[in-house]
Amino acid sequence: MKKVLMIAHQFPPIGGSGVQRTVKFVKYLRNFDYEPIILTRDASKAALKDETLLKDVPDGIKVIRTMACDFAALPGVFKYFGKIVNKLLIPDSERIWQRFARKQALAAIKDNKIDVIYTTSAPYSDHLLGVYLKKQYPEIPLVCDFRDEWTNNPYHVRKGLRAKIERNQEKMVLKYADCLITNTPVMLSNFLRDNPETKDKFYVIPNGYDDEDFEGIEGIEPSNDKFTLTYTGLLYGKRKPDNFFEALKRAIDEGSVDKSKIRVRLIGNYKVEQLQEVIDSYKLREIVSLMPYMKHRECLTELMKSDALLLIEPSGPGAEAFYTGKVFEYMNTKRPILASIPQHGAAAQLIKATKTGLVSDFNDIETTKKNLIQLYNCWRNGTNSVNPVVEEVKKFERKELTKSLVEVLNNSFKK
Question: What is the pTM of this model?
Answer without folding.
Answer: 0.84
